[in-house]
Each structure stands twice: as C-alpha cells, then as structure tokens.
Amino acid sequence: MLLVLFIIAHMAGNLHVFEGRESMNDYAHGLRTFGAPLLPHESLLWVMRIGLIAAAAAHIASSVVLTRRAVEARPVRYVSRKPAKGESRHAAATMRWGALVVLLFVVWHLLDLTFRTVNPVKDLPDAYGAVVEGFAPERWPVTVFYLIAVLALGFHLRHGVWSAVQTIAGPNNKWRKRTQVIALAVAVIVTAGFAIVPLAVTFGLVS
Ligand code: HEM
After folding, report:
1. Which of 84, 151, 183, 202 is the most exposed place for a label (fewest CB within 10 A)?
2. Residue 153 CB–ligand 1 contact under 6 Å
3. Residue 136 near residue 202, CB atoms below 8 Å
4. 198 is a domain residue
5. 135 lines ligand 1 (CB under 6 A)
6. What digits encode the pLDDT tens for the residues 147-157?
7. Does the predicted TM-score (pTM) go above 0.70?
8. Is 207 a domain residue?
9. Is the torsion defined by CA of 164, 52, 196, 99 positive or negative?
10. How far is residue 7's CA from residue 18's CA, in Å, rounded to a whole number?
11. How many separate domains does the chain show?
C-alpha cells in the first residue's frame, strides 16, 4: 500500500512539469525543505526513502516466500491453469518479468534523475532541467525505456491491486467485479500519468 501511495503521489507531482521550470523546481525544493526551520534539511525525503526501501524489501521478500509456498504446495505443474474469476491472465502472467523490468528501471532512474550520473544536467536543484534534457528528442531511447517500464508497472499494479484487495476481502466476496474496475483504473491512470511527461518532452511540448 505504501508503494502504491508513493507511485500515485510521484506521478501527480511530476505533472508540475507542465506548469514550467519555477513550479517544478519549487515543488522539488519544497520536498527538501519541508518542515524547515523546525526540522533538518531533507527530513521528509529521508523518512520517505527509508519507508520506501523497507516497503520494497518486504515486498520482494514476501513474493519469494509466496513463490516457495506455492511450489511446495504443488510440486507438479498444472496441465491447465485457468485464471481465477475476474483475474487478468496477462497481468498475472507478467508479474515476475514486470517486477524485473521495474527493478532495473528504478536503478537507471535513480542514476538518471536523482544522482544525475547518466543525465546531462548535473545541477541538483534543477529538476525541471534534468527532465527536459534527460528526455530531449535525441535521447529518445531513454524515453522508450521509460515507456516500457511504466507499461510494465501498469500491468504489475493491475494484478497487484486486484490481488491485494481480494486477499483482504476474502473468498467469494462481493467486491470481485468492482475490484477489477478499480485495479484497471489505477493502472491506466498511473501509466498514462507517468508516460505523458517523457512523451511531452521528446515531442517538444515541454522544453
Ligand atoms: C516516467 C516518468 C517519471 C518521471 C518523469 C520521474 C521523475 C523523477 C524526478 C525528476 C526525480 C528526482 C526528483 C528530485 O531529485 O528532485 C525522481 C525521483 C525518484 N523517482 Fe521518479 N519519475 C518517473 C517515474 C518513476 C517510477 C515509475 C518510479 C517507481 C517505480 C519512480 C521512482 C522514483 C524514486 C524512488 C525517486 C527518488 C526519490 C528520492 O529518494 O529522492 N519514478 N523521479
């Protein structure tokens, strides 16, 4: 849930890029100076970073435990495995590959827009400049990689949100149909909201 909340907040925050350099950089600065002068510099960011690392570690660990349990419970593969009612077969089948793509993406993304190791703009307070230069038309392969990653994230979220709500609601609950709609809506909004930023820069709508 923490990871999903972060994803939604991050996607919405990125849309500041459409308001221009000042708005985007003020937003990035606001995240760093939140609570000042009472709290030390980057307090909120560090609480968020530690929470995210812990949530991601718990998420990966529980997926390993679940996979082991599933293999132990059924050592012989199914001859035919039909998806559960309301489950998206494509989203379910891409969970592991999708997770790997998202994981590799996060490593690249941190080197690109957080540490700026692979980004042309090294000036850390200029988040807007890093986005505009990072997705410049001549760097279109970067944009393609981001699009693949956010699509993989969308599939991962669709099945993840569906599965999580079903786990909480229990078997034969009334929420199956509604959950399908909610999970699809979350996945589409997140994927489109993230994708629009690199696309807008590469196609010159934001410069
Ligand atoms: C595709 C569109 C995306 C754009 C344009 C974007 C943009 C950015 C920018 C500009 C920063 C640096 C902010 C700063 O240093 O002030 C950042 C940081 C970050 N982004 Fe993204 N992001 C995108 C997608 C994602 C996705 C899909 C994820 C996760 C799956 C993600 C996870 C992160 C993380 C973990 C940080 C580091 C936060 C920190 O500790 O400072 N981003 N992003």
Report:
1. 84
2. yes
3. yes
4. yes
5. no
6. 999 999 999 99
7. yes
8. no
9. negative
10. 19
11. 1
